[in-house]
TrEMBL record:
<dbReference type="Pfam" id="PF00730">
    <property type="entry name" value="HhH-GPD"/>
</dbReference>
<dbReference type="InterPro" id="IPR023170">
    <property type="entry name" value="HhH_base_excis_C"/>
</dbReference>
<feature type="domain" description="HhH-GPD">
    <location>
        <begin position="133"/>
        <end position="293"/>
    </location>
</feature>
<dbReference type="GO" id="GO:0006285">
    <property type="term" value="P:base-excision repair, AP site formation"/>
</dbReference>
<dbReference type="InterPro" id="IPR003265">
    <property type="entry name" value="HhH-GPD_domain"/>
</dbReference>
<dbReference type="GO" id="GO:0000702">
    <property type="term" value="F:oxidized base lesion DNA N-glycosylase activity"/>
</dbReference>
<feature type="region of interest" description="Disordered">
    <location>
        <begin position="1"/>
        <end position="25"/>
    </location>
</feature>
<dbReference type="InterPro" id="IPR011257">
    <property type="entry name" value="DNA_glycosylase"/>
</dbReference>
<protein>
    <submittedName>
        <fullName>Base excision DNA repair protein</fullName>
    </submittedName>
</protein>
Length: 331
């Protein structure tokens, strides 16, 4: 047995009886990609230090993120992969709306006092912090962390108190949300860097920037990847940006909307180009809702089932009741 085989065996073993876990391949793939996102977007942050905060976005990391984003900012990394078509997006939106209700962008963005959400705040800094709390954890956990943080420091705009209290106090305040050691460093460094750059705890100037410029500035912070930045654009700034989380990534694969081997960031760039702007908000929210609740589409769910969405896109044909039967999806 070579070294690679030994590592795989050691990873698969559970308990003390040498039994091997039989995790479904799809779940293992999603877990691996989720871990990759943690490493790329969170754990890259160095230990918090006021002295080193000026170096928070190292040139190499920042340039890599910006280069990866700008390379396909206006085009798909898979130009020959022509799905989803606008017609497919409309069909999926109709089916998901019939299953879960319509989702329209609110006229006014309000910040919940009980939920962290994923960028749902009129304050750009608060939106960014809430989205970081939501990374790689459940909505319930991130909401507990946000309520605990508010109880510790006051409401969302008490950034001075958070910075003055130090990273250990912040880590303790958000411990119930998971990954608190990493997230506390990321949040602290962003707050310090924002104040150093602009003289206040505010990123409201992003409202006056074009989408690409706002995205580039958000990506300049360590711990902020394309999904986090896209959520801030979509939910706080009211821009048409299609964010891809674990649920959207999984469902887009089940529907055949991305190449099988496409990573999450590649998928986000591809779908942002392919999905019509007017459908991005509702499709994102509905795909997340569906991914959490559908027995056939959620993580660990059945690979086949009676899901109307899955049936409508089965074998590359529209077969669901929401449309004409046997119509080529590429039409």
């Amino acid at each position: 047995m070579n070294m690679r085989q030994r590592k795989r065996t050691a990873t698969a073993e559970i308990g003390t009886h040498g039994r091997t876990a039989t995790t479904p391949k799809r779940i293992k793939t999603e877990a691996s990609k989720a871990l990759s996102d943690v490493l790329d977007n969170l754990s890259s942050a160095p230990p918090y230090s006021v002295k080193t905060v000026g170096d928070v976005s190292t040139p190499n990391l920042q340039s890599r993120k910006l280069a990866a984003y700008s390379q396909y900012a206006a085009s798909s990394p898979f130009p020959d992969f022509l799905r989803p078509t606008p017609a497919e997006c409309k069909l999926a939106l109709r089916i998901l709306s019939s299953l879960h209700g319509t989702r329209n962008r609110p006229a006014t963005v309000t910040a919940s006092t009980t939920r962290a959400g994923c960028g749902d705040s009129p304050s750009v800094v608060d939106s960014l912090v809430r989205t970081i709390l939501s990374q790689n954890t459940s909505d319930a956990n991130s909401s507990r962390a946000k309520r605990s943080m508010d109880a510790t420091y006051g409401r969302s705009d008490h950034w001075e108190a958070i910075v003055a209290g130090g990273v250990e106090k912040l880590q303790e305040a958000i411990a119930c949300g998971g990954l608190s050691k990493v997230k506390s460093r990321v949040i602290m460094q962003i707050l310090v860097q924002v104040h150093e750059r602009f003289g206040e705890y505010s990123l409201e100037h992003l409202r006056g920037l074009a989408n690409d410029e706002a995205m580039a500035e958000l990506l300049s912070f360590k711990g902020v990847g394309p999904k986090t930045a896209s959520c801030v654009l979509l939910f706080c700034l009211g821009r048409e940006s299609f964010a891809v989380d674990t649920h959207v990534y999984r469902i887009s694969g089940l529907l055949g909307w991305r190449p099988d081997k496409a990573g999450r960031e590649e998928t986000a760039r591809h779908l942002d180009v392919r999905i019509p702007d007017e459908d991005k908000y509702a499709l994102h929210v509905l795909m997340v809702t569906h991914g959490r609740g559908c027995g056939a589409c959620r993580a660990g769910g059945r690979t086949t089932g009676s899901c109307e969405l899955r049936q409508a896109f089965k074998k590359g044909q529209r077969t669901g009741p929401a449309c004409d039967r046997s119509v080529d999806l590429k039409s």
